[in-house]
Amino acid sequence: MRSRRARWRPILLFRHSLVARMTLGAVIIGALATAILLSIVNVTIHQNVFNDRRDAILANAHQRIVAAQAALATTVASTSEEVSAAIQAELSGISDSASGAGAIGAVVQGSGESSSVAINTLATDDRLTDLITDRMEREVRNGRIGRQYWQSVSVPGERAGTVSGMVVGSRVSMPLAGDYELYIVYSLESQQQVVDTVKRSVVLTGVGFLLIIILAVAVFTWRVLIPVRRTSLAAKRLAEGRLDKPLAVNGEDELAALATSFNTMAESIQSQIDRLNAMSVSQQLFVSDVSHELRTPLTTIKMAAEHIFELREEIEDPLVRRAAVLLHGQVDRFQTMLTDLLEISRIDSGRVTLRSDEVDLRDLLSGVLEDNEVHIQSSGCEIRLQAPDEPATAEVDSVRVQRILRNLILNAIEHAESNPIDITMAVNDDAVAVRVRDHGVGMSPDVVGRVFDRFYRADPSRKRTLGGTGLGLSISAEDAHLHGGSLQAWGWPADGASFLLTLPRELGEGGTPGHYSEPGPLPCIPDDAPAVARVKPRRAPEAVTGTVLGPGPVSRRSARPHGDGEVPLAVADAPVAPGHVTVIAPGQAPTARTPEVSGGRPS
């Protein structure tokens, strides 16, 4: 893993750094330009030095050949030995006299077919004869007397190896021997050293120039990007809501105009935020004041409505008697709505404090089930309860946690369509979780994404059997967040829905939110969820990541004394009618797929 990161680090550097990309571009362009320039300079220097040296060598060779021809023409040699000695002496003289021009030796060769005296190939150095190619030999042999031919060759160097050189050849007439070829070999070692020195100087100059260009581009790009980086940091501060640090405006160029425009934008956003905050505060005060003002007349109306409701049997007119019943129900609903609005107002204003005490969440859950016995009985839902053996104690605000559980259970009853509802509780070292899973109409992924929004209803045409303001889940999410916990939702069309409440077992100092290790003791997605529906649940206010642990051990709950009107806890293997609470014994699946129920739908 580390080697892979190290391999990709340069690529990430170039992707995230404009200075690096500009420097790399300068390196590539500068290297290509320098290479082309150096090539042109080297070729030009080499060509000019070679041409000048060639002209000088040809002029020197012409003088030596003419002088040699004149000397051989006046010789008095009469035998082949004398001719050979005269030619050898002349070759030595050419080599010595032309050494200042770079000559390293001379060679005479030919067949002499037109004469009666033949001489062998003569040279000042036997190695020089191998430098004469067949092509040059043919050209010189077939050329006219006095015309020069030349060819570039590699000649032995003074120290070791070979160096650049030139062979100049011409036909000469020998006494008694006829026409032969005379070749003078020149070395270009000194000129090659000059060219190499110039090349090295040019290369070093080009490399230095390239480094200067790279450094200049990097510094210039870094300097130009300073305002851009400042603008980027200011944009990050702007995204974080910090608008009190404007950009410094230097000069009157485009970058200064950018800083001025950004400062103007930040000021405009700040003014809009201030205006919206003022409107929000006014709205909160209005809702809070109106809610408080409505409580006094509502209390009077409620007392009158309850009095009329209690005496409804004495009313003879059936329409008035029906109106008394409706008035009693709607006043209760109005009071619930008013209570929710007051709670939302307090939450928005940040004036909420927790009244925490250490309680067993199993007792809170049992109390909620008992308080909502009427709704459970009327809905025909079977509540299947699975709780752990050990105490599920936690430091919580009992009123708020009971409200969360009540909202989740009533929401499940509302949408279960008389199918069973599974309530599972689990606990670990630092968290306790309660999952409420129904097997009703379910929710689409779009609905799951908005289920915690205020006043949101997935199906506005659906009739509410238990009333409600559309604020229950939103308030529940806020209550969970106040504890440092989370509230997650999962659902799938025709496969029901699942809500998971996870709370830390200990709050922070002074009733501040607590903490627990993710992901908690219980997963939000139930075990019987179809494979296609195992999508990531939505969490209010943020998503949960990590590996989900399995539920803790469960057992039969010990029965509490029940009076009239309380919910009986039925034994798991006993026949149970819908509308009761079933305690799941150890070893039984807490969320088995719902069987067909009389009056319900297959899950």
Question: Can you give a write-up of this model?
Answer:
It is a single chain. With 603 residues, the chain is an alpha+beta fold. The chain has 3 domains: 19-195, Beta-Lactamase (2-Layer Sandwich), CATH 3.30.450.20; 254-348, Helix Hairpins; 357-583, Heat Shock Protein 90, CATH 3.30.565. The chain has helices at 2-16, 18-73, 80-97, 134-142, 189-239, 254-310, 318-349, 361-371, 373-379, 398-416, 445-450, 472-482, and strands at 103-109, 122-123, 149-156, 162-174, 178-187, 357-360, 383-386, 393-396, 421-427, 431-438, 486-491, 497-504, 538-540, 569-570, 581-583. Strand 9 and strand 10 (431-438) form a beta hairpin. It starts with a helix and ends in a 20-residue tail after the last strand. It is found in: Cell membrane. Residues 289-507 form the Histidine kinase domain.
CATH fold node name of the largest domain: Heat Shock Protein 90
What does the overall shape look like? rod-shaped
Average pLDDT:
76
Q: Name the CATH architecture of the largest domain.
A: 2-Layer Sandwich
CATH class of the largest domain: Alpha Beta
Brief overview:
This protein has helices spanning 2-16, 18-73, 80-97, 134-142, 189-239, 254-310, 318-349, 361-371, 373-379, 398-416, 445-450, 472-482; strands spanning 103-109, 122-123, 149-156, 162-174, 178-187, 357-360, 383-386, 393-396, 421-427, 431-438, 486-491, 497-504, 538-540, 569-570, 581-583. By secondary structure, it is of the alpha+beta class.
